[in-house]
Specification:
Elements: E1 2-5, E2 8-11, H1 31-37, H2 50-60, H3 98-104, H4 123-126, H5 133-140, H6 147-155, E3 162-164, H7 181-184, E4 192-198, H8 204-210, E5 220-224, H9 228-238, E6 244-248, E7 262-267, E8 271-276, E9 291-294, H10 316-325, H11 333-340, E10 350-354, E11 357-360, H12 368-379, E12 391-394, H13 409-417, E13 434-437, H14 441-445, H15 461-466, E14 474-475, E15 492-497, E16 503-510, H16 516-519, E17 521-523, E18 528-531, E19 535-540, E20 552-554, E21 568-569
Active site: 259, 490
Subcellular location: Cytoplasm; Nucleus
Region (Disordered): 1-121
Length: 583
């Protein structure tokens, strides 16, 4: 949906992440399985949000401008969805706080409107009209790179091990150095013994097809947060596959989700950890901007070695084990044991996770934005004139952050983002410039996916109208530097650039959107941190990469043939961000 105000236009819709603070009563029903049996396959056959289904339907049956019915009638499948007359792309009560949920009740859905058809760019909606569903499935199931290309990618010296996903429809040079899921699961990366996939939205059949044929019957554990009907639907998807087992993440606090996206890959040669931002569905690996951190291949420790051995200077091993232990699941004990048996000492990033709970004392600093605050205080270098170094946050979903900045964004959250060095005094609220990068309506309309891309960019209209102050911080999505200006971002990144945007003090890629459910919110006069959801990301700090200057330089292009890749960090979008409403 389009909203316009003093600070420009922004998109509102719902998506996979829109349930970050929703009750599971809004999750899909198993009726979709019955629909499949009856031959109705207009929507995706996996648990996901209503907006994802609507976006899928639009891709499958886009409106044609030549169809005279557009201006006179609503398509039959949409006639009952009239709760938001005149709003076009409608919204969910996605990242609402619980009190908002109680007020708004039912989740609003999507309604096709004449105004949805972008007259200037009709191809955005109609480009797939001649493709059958099978053809589009083949298009999504992209083949991995040539074997030599993938091998070169692993061995040509990417010290950060930060990658983007491949995007169909952009110049090939911008996919050089990018990865598809089939690349990650390729035999070139290791001879797979077993794997674990942690994620939110999962298409089991599609996931199985991403594994090489020789690995498709290897043990696969899927860690998820589905409940009730959605859980039954997920399990039903896996019935044809005897090698698949499940671990249900406990979500004891209302409106939380299992939003973490991670792969654990056990090979004959060792172990690998992959932390990324993509759901395990075809659309997320097709024409969106996504991020991946790919660990080194961790060798097995000599037999009889103490489990505390093989730790990195960033304490990645113990932090990963702590994160897995937070699930309190016997199913994950096998993976905890395996991690203890491997040498993770080559890791140069810090793990930053969120797990549901209410934390006090020293436990407050284990998770969420207080974990980021602790890491920056202990390991980031002090920044001279730091009040002039802005904070940039980029995300695909926005939750309720309060009636003004003092409620969360410009108070506790900003205090965590601006922490740097142990002797830094706390700045007054909003002293540091904040730039929030979130796509505009035109970004979505002109994207490779067209308007259906809005299904992955949730911002509830009810929430937006209560925090109009927030929109003065908004900046457009632009990624000419990586050739991805038209590939809508599902990646989430946060960083601290210099005033001239030529350097960054740190960089974080994570599953966490801009919401208190993901990052946590202080309670009881700041003595308790409450987090609703599971999230996971990795923090890049110059000190971990041997940079005495205390910052990464930002290179002028993603490809680094002529740059010292050890000091130039590949920020995937354009800096400085361009504010809404600017030319």
């Amino acid at each position: 949906m389009l909203q316009e105000g003093a600070h420009g236009k922004w998109t509102v819709s719902s998506s996979d992440e829109s349930t970050e603070e929703n009750s599971d009563s809004e999750k899909p029903s198993t009726s979709s399985l019955l629909d499949t049996a009856r031959g109705r396959t207009s929507g995706p056959q996996y648990p996901c949000s209503e907006a994802r289904k609507a976006a899928h339907k639009r891709k499958a049956s886009p409106l044609k401008l030549s169809d005279k019915r557009i201006s006179t009638e609503i398509p039959p499948a949409e006639k009952q969805r009239t709760s938001q007359e005149g709003l076009g792309w409608c919204v969910s009560s996605s990242d609402e706080e619980p009190e908002d949920e109680e007020k708004h009740g039912h989740k609003e859905t999507l309604k096709e409107e004449e105004s949805d058809v972008p007259k200037e760019h009709p191809l955005n909606l109609c480009k797939d009209v001649e493709l059958s569903e099978n053809q589009k499935a083949e298009e999504y199931d992209e083949a991995p790179s040539e074997a030599q290309d993938t091998w070169d990618l692993l061995n040509r010296g990417n010290p950060f091990r930060f990658f983007l996903t491949k995007v169909t429809g952009i110049e090939q040079r911008y996919n050089s150095g990018a990865l598809h899921i089939k690349d990650i699961l390729s035999p070139l990366f290791g001879t797979l013994i077993s794997s674990a996939q942690f994620n939110y939205c999962i298409d089991v059949a599609w996931l199985v097809r991403q594994y090489p044929q020789e690995f498709r019957k290897k043990p696969l554990l899927i860690v998820h947060g589905e409940k009730r009907e959605s859980k039954a639907e997920l399990l039903a998807q896996a019935r044809p596959y005897e090698n698949i087992s499940f671990c249900q993440a406990k979500l004891d606090i209302a409106f939380g989700t299992h939003h973490t996206k991670m792969m654990l890959l056990l090979y004959e040669e060792g172990l690998r950890v992959v932390i990324h931002t993509s759901n395990l569905i075809a659309e997320d690996w097709h024409q969106k901007t996504q991020g991946i951190w790919l660990s080194p291949l961790y060798p097995r420790l000599p037999q009889g070695t103490d489990g505390s051995a093989g730790e990195s200077e960033t304490n990645f091993k113990s932090d990963l084990i702590s994160y897995l232990m937070a699930y309190n699941s016997p199913t994950l004990q096998e993976w905890i044991d395996l991690i203890q048996e491997h040498d993770l000492s080559e890791t140069r990033v810090y793990l930053l996770g969120s797990t549901p709970g209410r934390y006090q004392g020293s436990d407050k600093e284990k998770w969420g934005h207080l974990r980021l605050r602790k890491l920056l205080k202990e390991h980031a270098s002090s920044i001279p004139a730091q009040e002039s170094w802005p904070v940039v946050g980029q995300f695909s979903s926005i939750g309720s952050v309060g009636a003004d900045g003092s409620k969360w964004l410009c108070s506790e959250f900003q205090e965590s983002l601006v922490a740097a060095g142990s002797n830094v005094t706390t700045l007054l609220k909003c002293d540091v410039p904040i730039h929030l990068v979130y796509p505009t309506v035109n970004n979505v309309r002109q994207s490779l996916e067209g308007y259906p891309a809005g299904g992955s960019l949730p911002y509830s209209i009810q929430t937006a109208q209560k925090q109009l102050w927030l929109h003065s911080y908004f900046n457009k999505w632009s990624a000419e530097i990586s050739g991805r200006s038209h590939a809508m971002p599902h990646i989430k990144t946060y960083m601290r650039p210099s005033p001239d945007f030529q350097k960054i003090a740190w960089f974080l890629v994570t599953s966490a959107n801009l919401s208190k459910a993901a990052w946590g919110a202080l309670e009881k006069n700041g003595t308790q941190l409450m987090i609703r959801s599971y999230e996971l990301g990795v923090l890049f700090l110059p000190s971990a990469f041997g940079l005495g200057k205390g910052y990464f330089r930002v290179r002028g292009k993603m490809l680094s043939e002529n740059n010292d890749s050890a000091t130039y960090f590949p920020v995937p979008y354009d800096l400085p961000p361009e504010q809404y409403g600017s030319k």
